[in-house]
Amino acid sequence: MDFNGTYNLETQENFVPFMRAIGLPEDIIERGKDLKSVTEIVQNGNHFVFTVTTGPRIIRNEFTAGQEAELEAITGENVKSVVNVDGNKLLMNLKGIIGVSELVGDTLTNTMTFQDIVFKSVSKRA
């Protein structure tokens, strides 16, 4: 599956409850809840570079599928994890946050689950 591209956020669900559950401060949640993010994915075989820009914040993670890498979690901390590819999905576990990025056509759906709270964002290829 070719994940290469730039994806613009269209919709998101459960942003505020999810961010509260993972412990982000209220001021950061308030500032971030209405910002639209842009995700750029560069893929070369099993090697990926994910860059997510949300307002002034940029999270850049580089990894090779199936190998342990140090990734920046949404909380800002660095966590060692392995990202696996399963067809059109990338699967990861970042310190109790289960992440799935699924590409169907030009739609990238990111789902993060922490305890029983699911945060879902849907982005379209630019």
UniProtKB/TrEMBL annotation:
InterPro entries: Calycin, Fatty_acid-bd, ILBP. It comes from the Eukaryota. Pfam families: Lipocalin_7. The keyword Transport applies. Keywords: Cytoplasm, Lipid-binding, Transport. GO terms for cellular component: cytoplasm. GO terms for molecular function: lipid binding. It is found in: Cytoplasm. Belongs to the calycin superfamily. Fatty-acid binding protein (FABP) family. This is Liver-type fatty acid-binding protein. It comes from Pelobates cultripes (Western spadefoot toad).
